[in-house]
Amino acid sequence: MIAAGEERVWGWSSRAGSLRAERRSRFLIEEARLGLGVRCLELGCGTGEFTTRLVESGCELVAIELSEATAAVARQRVGDRAEIVVGNIETGEGLEGREFDAIVGVSVLHHLDLDACFARTFPHLRLGGRFAFSEPNLLNPQVWAERSFEVVRRARHVTPHETAFRAGDLRARFEAVGLEVELCRPFEFLHPATPGPLIGAVGVLERLAERSPLRAIAGSIAVAGRRPLEHDEAAERGDTP
């Protein structure tokens, strides 16, 4: 389904979904400081929904995807504007000998063995390099239901291995391997199924909610920061004192 370019289940194709995608792309570009000459790695690019947006920054983009069939769809979409690599970000396969100024991704870390990704892929981020990701928020009622009830999981096409994060826990995971987290916060109340005529009204409510304690149950988490210029090798490996 994904390899065929069917992205309906992700919701990016609706008017509200497109707005959500634009927000995420802008966040990644701004927080990772993408621009001309910046070598960026996009994790889990899928069919290239965000790859096509990230290249607009002018960065030198390498996008890695596990599935050859899905990567082929991404190549068709972006042409020679980005390099699409088939590889494994839990093992580092496909990234040998490469170094990047930034690593970014949308809704990818919750599919992974995050410790393996930190150990095998994040060492390709140069010292002082930046990272930015958006991930599902486990405190959001829909996300929680998708991970807690099989009937909801099946209806929402959530695979059994998918997880989700709490903001505090996600921050702690990054910091435990020596990465410096500059922001880690819930965001996004606009649902991809929101009818077009209601988007403006939802936007007003969203802005109010994000200034209140309701922010904790927003749909996603934004996390961004950098790899420090000085780092603790033991922490990066995940060793304990």
Describe the structure.
The protein has a single domain (8-228), classed as Vaccinia Virus protein VP39 (Rossmann fold, 3-Layer(aba) Sandwich), CATH 3.40.50.150. Helices cover 33% and strands 20% of the residues. The protein has helices at 15-31, 51-54, 68-78, 114-120, 141-148, 150-155, 167-176, 199-209, 233-237; strands at 39-43, 60-65, 83-86, 100-106, 125-136, 180-187, 220-226. The termini are far apart. Residues 1-6 have low confidence and may be disordered.
Helix and strand topology:
Blueprint: H1 15-31, E1 39-43, H2 51-54, E2 60-65, H3 68-78, E3 83-86, E4 100-106, H4 114-120, E5 125-136, H5 141-148, H6 150-155, H7 167-176, E6 180-187, H8 199-209, E7 220-226, H9 233-237
Parallel strand pairs: 1-2, 1-4, 2-3, 4-5
Antiparallel strand pairs: 5-7, 6-7
How many helices does DSSP assign? 9
Roughly how many Å apart are the termini?
A: 46 Å
The count of DSSP E runs of length 2 or more, i.e. the number of strands, is 7
Low-confidence residue ranges: 1-6
- Average pLDDT: 91
Instruction: Find the CATH superfamily.
Output: Vaccinia Virus protein VP39
Measured as a percent range, the helix fraction is 25-40%
Q: Profile the largest sheet.
A: 7 strands, mixed
Integer tally of domains: 1
Could you give the order of the helices and strands?
HEHEHEEHEHHHEHEH
Q: Outline, from the CA principal axes?
A: globular
CATH class label? Alpha Beta
Helical/strand content category = alpha/beta
Oligomer: single chain
Query: Based on the structure given, which CATH architecture is correct?
Result: 3-Layer(aba) Sandwich
Q: Tell me the strand order in the biggest sheet.
A: 3-2-1-4-5-7-6
Any idea of the CATH topology? Answer: Rossmann fold
Radius of gyration: 17 Å
